[in-house]
Amino acid sequence: MRVLVVEDEPKMAGLLRRGLAEEGYAVDVAADGADGFAAAMSRSYDAVVLDVMLPELSGFEVCRRLRSSEVWVPVLMLTARAAVSDRIAGLDDGADDYLTKPFHLKELFARLRALTRRGPVPRPTQLTAGDLRVDPSSQRCWRGDVEVVLTAKEYALLEAFLRRPGAVLTREVLLEHCWDFAYESRSNVVDVHIRALRDKIDRRFGVRSLETVRGTGYRLRADGGRADAGQR
């Protein structure tokens, strides 16, 4: 198996190279993010061990670019940062696992074995309906080339619709998908958030994609919407 190590600290890079080689891996080493990204794009690897703090491109950016390029090689991120927010950022950018320095080499080997057994798993980079699209990994949304900033609940609603474009989703289904059990089905919380979502993805662009199905719920048009200045 061939592994790419992207690590700018020479001592750590050497330690990883020797340890992985002793475990039977073929190892390539890149000393900065730009070279690491280029290597991962030009050659097939069974896994990438990727430091976060790198010259040229950060590990976060390298991982984000790989996933945007539909390269699904398993990525194990390494960092000296122990903050939960950093671990979340790495995973949201497409990393498969996260290891905080200092670590034991045996743990790194075990995590790599788990990742390589799983292998690269193709994941959809985006969900779309016409020119409306979201990126599930980063929870970002666009209408055409314009990014639309959504709250967490607005995004959760939109993703639910985009996973079933053209289907009618009842208020109960949306509550179950996007809220916890503290909310009751008779609450108008869904309607309030749908109105806010419409303002951002439809009215702002003069289109109608999110339709009300009277007495039932809501539906997102599979074509992403049509020009309609008279939405309700």
TrEMBL record:
<feature type="modified residue" description="4-aspartylphosphate">
    <location>
        <position position="51"/>
    </location>
</feature>
<feature type="domain" description="Response regulatory">
    <location>
        <begin position="2"/>
        <end position="116"/>
    </location>
</feature>
<dbReference type="Pfam" id="PF00072">
    <property type="entry name" value="Response_reg"/>
</dbReference>
<dbReference type="InterPro" id="IPR039420">
    <property type="entry name" value="WalR-like"/>
</dbReference>
<dbReference type="InterPro" id="IPR011006">
    <property type="entry name" value="CheY-like_superfamily"/>
</dbReference>
<feature type="domain" description="OmpR/PhoB-type">
    <location>
        <begin position="124"/>
        <end position="222"/>
    </location>
</feature>
<keyword id="KW-0238">DNA-binding</keyword>
<feature type="DNA-binding region" description="OmpR/PhoB-type">
    <location>
        <begin position="124"/>
        <end position="222"/>
    </location>
</feature>
<dbReference type="Pfam" id="PF00486">
    <property type="entry name" value="Trans_reg_C"/>
</dbReference>
<keyword id="KW-0597">Phosphoprotein</keyword>
<protein>
    <submittedName>
        <fullName>Response regulator transcription factor</fullName>
    </submittedName>
</protein>
<dbReference type="InterPro" id="IPR036388">
    <property type="entry name" value="WH-like_DNA-bd_sf"/>
</dbReference>
<dbReference type="InterPro" id="IPR001867">
    <property type="entry name" value="OmpR/PhoB-type_DNA-bd"/>
</dbReference>
<dbReference type="InterPro" id="IPR001789">
    <property type="entry name" value="Sig_transdc_resp-reg_receiver"/>
</dbReference>
